[in-house]
From TrEMBL, chain A:
The active site is at residues 86, 203, 205. One of its GO terms (cellular component) is cytoplasm. GO terms for biological process: 'de novo' IMP biosynthetic process. This is Phosphoribosylformylglycinamidine synthase subunit PurQ. It comes from Neoroseomonas eburnea.
UniProtKB/TrEMBL annotation, chain B:
PANTHER family: PHOSPHORIBOSYLFORMYLGLYCINAMIDINE SYNTHASE SUBUNIT PURS. One of its GO terms (molecular function) is phosphoribosylformylglycinamidine synthase activity. Its main location: cytoplasm. One of its GO terms (biological process) is 'de novo' IMP biosynthetic process. The gene is purS. It catalyses: N(2)-formyl-N(1)-(5-phospho-beta-D-ribosyl)glycinamide + L-glutamine + ATP + H2O = 2-formamido-N(1)-(5-O-phospho-beta-D-ribosyl)acetamidine + L-glutamate + ADP + phosphate + H(+). This is Phosphoribosylformylglycinamidine synthase subunit PurS. It comes from the Bacteria.
Length: 231, 79
């Protein structure tokens, strides 16, 4: 799997992501600054977390207009796989590659804590190492992760099986208390219709080694490494 | 020519900032504030001198960048 992590001014989780990708592929992913061109032979593009462009205007809004996004949109149109975590999810939404919006957390508080996620769709390049309904722990660290979309969009996401992850409690139930940022229908992550773009707010890349306190997030990267074997 | 773009959370979209401001006003003893919505104003200084063209340009900017029309509505005023 040949992966590239896009680095915008203000991106700050790219090294965590590199650790996760290196762990499953054995080699360093490319780190691409936002003014560089996207190489043509990539299997995976990753938009990592952080505060690109200082969250000016809206989280992800400035990065979504940066030069490399043209290449990333073309990569998406050709069926390329893209993972966006936290600010990366916000950028994918602002770029129109995933539907909806991410509002300020309902509590208005920046949430820095672990949450439990439930896998809503297995068998994708991002989730093949999990069973549907499996739960796992993931750290979250965001101020604007409150997923919003109109009812028609939410119904479509659910109807087409494009909800990737939901916030749940320790029993795997999607309760209001487990939904710390107030997301519509407890949605933590979604897929594009072709299942090749995945965006989520929590950080699976931050639990990929026992030294980090667990390996709960590792199956996502194992899934990617297994699914996206380079030709 | 100056254009002012008013960006507001759409009706029906939760506005936690507005809610918090409302609570703070209540705490200060201001009674009768039924609802608060918080948005932003973006002022543009445009080279365009035709008001209609300036407005349409500012609206285009709002649609493409200044507002996220999934969650926000906007209105342009030409000064």
């Amino acid at each position: 799997m040949k992966a590239a992590i896009i680095v915008f001014p203000g991106t700050n989780r790219e090294r965590d992501m590199r650790t996760a990708l290196k762990r499953v592929t054995g080699r360093d992913p490319l780190m691409l600054f936002h003014r560089e061109d996207l190489p043509r032979d990539l299997d995976l593009v990753v938009l990592a977390g952080g505060f690109s462009y200082g969250d000016y205007l809206r989280c992800g809004a400035m990065a979504a207009q940066s030069p490399i996004m043209k290449d990333i949109k073309a990569f998406a149109e050709k069926g390329g796989h893209i993972l966006g975590v936290c600010n990366g999810f916000q950028i994918l939404i602002e770029a129109g590659l995933l539907p909806g919006g991410l509002l300020r957390n309902a509590s208005l508080r920046f949430l820095s804590m672990d949450c439990t996620l439930r896998v809503e769709r297995a068998g994708t390049a991002f989730t093949s190492r999990w069973q549907k309904g499996a739960t796992f722990r993931a750290p979250m660290a965001h101020g604007d992760g409150n997923y919003f979309a109109d009812d028609a969009t939410l119904d479509r996401l659910e109807g087409e099986g494009l909800v990737a992850f939901r916030y749940v409690n320790e029993n795997g139930e999607a309760t209001e208390a487990a939904n710390r940022n107030g997301s519509a229908r407890n949605i933590a992550g979604i897929f594009s219709p072709n299942l090749r773009i995945c965006g989520l707010m929590p950080h699976p890349e931050d639990l990929v080694d026992d030294l980090m306190g667990g390996t709960d997030g590792l199956p996502m990267f194992e899934s990617l490494a297994e699914s996206l074997v380079s030709a | 020519m100056k254009a002012r773009v008013y960006v507001m959370p759409k009706a029906g979209v939760l506005d936690p900032q507005g809610k918090a401001i409302g609570h703070a006003l209540e705490g200060l003893g201001f009674a009768g504030v039924n609802d608060v919505r918080a948005g932003k104003v973006i002022e543009l200084d445009l080279a365009e001198t035709d008001p209609a063209k300036a407005k349409s340009a500012a609206e285009d900017m709002a649609r493409k960048l200044l507002a996220n029309t999934v969650i926000e509505s906007f209105r342009v005023e030409i000064a």
